[in-house]
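EI: anyone free to look at a 425-residue chain?
SC: sure, send it
EI:
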Amino acid sequence: MKSDEENLRLATSTESVDAINAKFYGRFQFPYPPVAFDKPIDRAFESLMLNQSLGSWDHSRIPSNPRIWIAGCGTNQAVFTALRFPDADITATDLSAQSLETAARNARSLDICNVKFKQETINKASYAGEFDYVICTGVIHHNAEPDRPLKNLARALKRDGVLELMVYNRYHRIITTAFQKAIRLFGGNAENGDFELELLIAKKIIEGNKLRNLMAQSIREYTACPEAQLADALLQPVEHSYTVESMDELASACGLEMLVPCINQYDKSSGTFNWNLEFADPELQKFYDGFSDLRRWQISNHLMLETSPMIWFYLHRKDSRKPRKSESKLSQEFLDLRFRPSATSKLLFTRKENGEYAQGAHPVAYPGQHRDDVCQRIIETLDRSPSTTMRDVLDQLGVETNFSTVNKLRLSLTTNAFPFLIAIH
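SC: here you go
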């Protein structure tokens, strides 16, 4: 029996779901075209920061010229990745021929030459030990049996490679999943999906919204949004969702181990990127901080509910020769290291009326000034005294060095999402 909490009525077989997903994303290309792409001038910048996000302070875990597979690339992820990692050899695959066509057109518009596009389902991918870095975000949860594509992703990794994986957070999808199931019932549960009928019904419900509940508040934001955005949220044919606990169980069954959270653009913009809670009671805080990362994240997931971060993590193979580092260990290493402020600039490519992208006249300084006052003071102190350890800097500024504070500073200063400091080694 399928879980009543998930949208799995059409999950009858791997092949049928592949077919319906190809049809769905052929009709609703997602993500829709961004207003702009950007590209750091320092070609190694994103590789350095990715390594630091993984706790590789000597920047050796992911090479500067990695082999990357973007599994389920959609319309623009390959372009974003190619601009971030210009020296990478990238393979980008997707079920949808239309999505691949859009992605390839945007890549040509930006003179990107390091991506090979291929129409392919992850369920039948046969890569083995080929990639330093695999990116698969928002994909496997739309499969009939998510363990099947995840095993293929795990097999594709080199022994010490890293997988960036995102699946839906169960507590983020309660309302949208309920809407999807209601629309499917309205449409008669057509086995291959009558998306035009479902879209019409969804629009009528949204525009004539007379509900008096959480659903009413949730669907209001889709009143004037692009069709692709509405469809991706409210019309998905098949959708699993996970807690940290169930994601870990799935990953473990596929030979993978969760490393650390990946701070994504959505959690960054909403300020919900920190998986660690803070409590008023010191004893409770000490008790909580003493748990393993996985148990702490599980507790946070349940208590934070819909405000918990996305289930977006870095993973590696269980037989990796690189030992996993806990957040506590990473925080201690962060305290003992020396850093220098990062300084590069970005080229901006903005979308023209004809849909192509044109480079802006002037580079933009990056990452600029930090919005957090304490973080900015740390950056300025290191700019004056780059030979000082982080522990000495925090002592000089009177900043506490408990786990919660230090880990948040590490995330807010040395990761891809907040690339303000580079480790000196």
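EI: Residues 395 and 401 are 8 Å apart (CA to CA).
SC: 👍
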